[in-house]
Write a structure and sequence with these properties.
One of its GO terms (molecular function) is dioxygenase activity. InterPro entries: AB_hydrolase_fold, Extradiol_RC_dioxygenase, Glyas_Bleomycin-R_OHBP_Dase, Glyas_Fos-R_dOase_dom, VOC_core. Keywords: Dioxygenase, Oxidoreductase. By secondary structure, the chain is α/β, with parallel strands linked by helices. Helix content is about 20%, strand content about 30%. It contains ten helices and 29 strands. The chain has helices at about 20-30, 90-100, 175-190, 240-250, 310-315, 365-370, 400-425, 435-450, 490-500, 520-530; strands at about 10-15, 30-40, 45-50, 60-65, 80-85, 105-110, 115-120, 125-130, 165-175, 190-195, 200-205, 210-215, 225-235, 260, 265-270, 275-280, 300, 335-340, 350-355, 375-380, 385, 390, 395, 400, 430-435, 455-460, 475-485, 505-510, 545-550. Strand 6 (about 105-110) and strand 7 (about 115-120) form a beta hairpin. The longest helix is centred in the C-terminal third of the chain and has 22 residues, at about 400-425.
Length: about 550
């Protein structure tokens, strides 16, 4: 059964660095950021939509942000390239623009009788600028002014005559090209327009296309950054989506989940070659929750569209700036890390070091609650254990690789020093908060690099150094929180005594919890960081003598 499609709806890709991605697609290509959301499947994942001024289907390129995520592999069973339509006479202007922005390119070369410039985006995805008249009727929104000075957010806007007109084509790699082509013809009415070598072009009625490349003998695609997740075709309405689902079920085409994506309703299916294909409605569109003039300026979290989204979700999303906006550029330092700035900074910085099995995102909600005005710098440990990051290798749960502890503490100290120049950190107004393995790394650094860390919050910590060196920690303040039901709690007093013996001022408390963190950890850490004692009663020191009630949230 054929359910005609009116063309490509969008293409969705995966990026490793969202700031570089925004700079390329908005700053260089001149697309408009028309929507920013948390992921529909994973609310902890940022999802950006680029398009023309109105965010029409057929102009949309969307990105899932896997910040500092693993590299994927382009191969059979997935899309490999996207082509964007421009006016044929704009080719020269884009070559000049690419040189100005220092974007490498090849061409122009001819593909299916059209001049093509081949570029690579910051993740290495091939983006082709194709000179064509096939989509000339889609140019209108670029010439319609809207009520903002710079609708695309670019420092050097693209002239309307040269602007990207929409998606020209997407290339799919398949080892079953005949079956793949038949699938698109049978279900969507696409017909073969031409062939060049191992590529056949299937055309939609309005001119855009899907290019099917014979990839027999290629390696299989692997998901990850720098890859295209799926392509989406346009559906007339929800009835068309329902009809396609019935047709696919009749031929046992595999799973066909349907989802309400707020801006469109989508069906997903894999074509015979393995590529994921989405069938998405045109309506209600990008303006369903934002007026045209302010598209892309507000963050939407699915399920929280009409109220303030939860901090636990938003604080974990990577931040970015549009071209021309103030920004803090992430630097290439010894540890992968995430910067998270509040709306109003108070001049303080809080470094966050996660526990075993977590990553740099895990402590961001706690850090933001405990230090509302601080710049958060959350690190990812470099030692892997069963695929999860740690800050050093361990031999048993209570014995650690001493050489690795010392080497990683040296690297951490270098990171701290480099952050002063990279991010303008004032170490006199910086604090360090670590949990479990991360807290132990901070403790090791206190002894191995005395004076570098002046304020530290250690949650569920023990001393990872079997023979800590003599260190002068006068002027260093430490808050230690241990869990009364934590197996590691028995090792915490030894760390407390070692810190005190070195001259550190230590406040140590035991709360009613296990190894997992609690709201009480957040509360006490916040009070201590704000200069308010978290002590209960009038005792000046507890030495783990007092239990504080807490509700475990881990």
């Amino acid at each position: 059964m054929t359910i005609p499609s009116n063309g490509l709806h969008h293409v969705t890709l995966i990026t490793r660095r969202i700031q570089a991605n925004v700079d390329f697609y908005v700053g260089f290509l001149g697309l408009r950021l028309v929507k920013r959301t948390a992921g529909f499947e994973d609310a902890a994942q940022l999802h950006l939509f680029y398009g023309d001024r109105t965010g029409r289907p057929g102009s949309l390129i969307t990105f899932l942000a896997w910040e500092d995520g693993g590299q994927g592999r382009v191969g059979r069973g997935a899309p490999s390239e996207i082509a964007l339509a421009i006016a044929p006479e704009a080719i020269g202007a884009w070559m000049t623009r690419a040189l100005r922005f220092q974007i490498p390119f090849t061409g122009p070369e001819s593909e299916f009788g059209e001049p093509v410039l081949r570029l690579k985006d910051p993740d290495g995805v091939i983006v082709k600028l194709t000179g064509t008249q096939a989509l000339s009727d889609r140019n209108a929104p670029w010439s319609q002014p809207i009520d903002e000075e710079d609708p695309v957010g670019a420092l050097t806007p693209v002239a309307d005559a040269d602007a990207v007109q929409g998606l020209r084509a997407a290339t799919l790699l398949t080892e079953r090209p005949e079956e793949t082509a038949a699938f698109f013809n049978r279900h969507f009415g696409l017909v073969e327009l031409a062939r060049e070598g191992s590529v056949r072009r299937l055309a939609f009625p309005r001119g855009d296309a899907i290019d099917i490349r014979d990839a027999a003998g290629f390696w299989e695609a692997a998901p990850g950054t720098g890859t295209i997740d799926h392509i989406a075709l346009r559906a007339a309405d929800n009835r068309a989506v329902a009809a396609l689902r019935l047709a696919l079920a009749a031929e046992e085409a595999g799973p066909t989940p349907v989802h309400d994506r707020r801006y469109f309703t989508s069906l997903y299916v894999r074509e015979p070659g393995g590529s994921l294909v989405e069938f998405a409605t045109d309506a209600p569109g990008m303006t369903v929750d934002e007026p045209e003039a302010t598209l892309g300026t507000r963050l939407f979290v699915p399920g929280h569209e009409d109220r303030i989204p939860p901090l636990e979700t938003t604080v974990a999303l990577p931040q970015f700036a549009l071209p021309g906006e103030p920004r803090r550029i992430a630097r290439d330092l010894p540890f992968i890390h995430r910067l998270q700035a509040p709306e109003e900074e108070d001049g303080t910085t809080l470094f966050l070091l996660h526990g075993s099995g977590a990553n740099e995102l895990s402590l961001l909600p706690l850090g933001r609650k405990a230090a509302p005005g601080a710049l958060l710098i959350a690190l990812r440990g470099r030692a892997l254990e069963e695929g999860s990051p740690r800050f050093y290798r361990r031999i048993t749960p209570f014995r650690f690789d001493q050489a690795d502890v010392r080497a990683e503490a040296d690297a951490f100290a270098a990171f701290i020093t480099d952050s002063v120049a990279a991010y303008g950190v004032d170490l006199d107004h910086a604090a360090f908060l670590g949990y479990s393995n991360g807290a132990n790394m901070i403790a090791a650094t206190l002894f191995l690099h005395p004076g570098l860390i002046r304020r530290a919050v250690l949650l569920r910590a023990m001393n990872p150094l079997e023979e800590p060196p003599a260190a002068d920690l006068a002027g260093t303040s430490v808050l230690m929180l241990s869990g009364s039901d934590d197996a590691y709690a028995a090792h915490a007093p030894a760390l407390e005594e070692a810190l005190r013996a070195s001259g550190a001022e230590v406040e140590a408390r035991r709360i009613a919890a296990g190894h997992l963190l609690t709201e009480e950890d957040t509360r006490q850490a916040g009070l201590w960081l704000a200069g308010k004692s978290p002590r209960i009663g009038s005792e000046s020191e507890s030495r783990f003598s007092e239990d504080v009630g807490a509700k475990t949230i881990g």
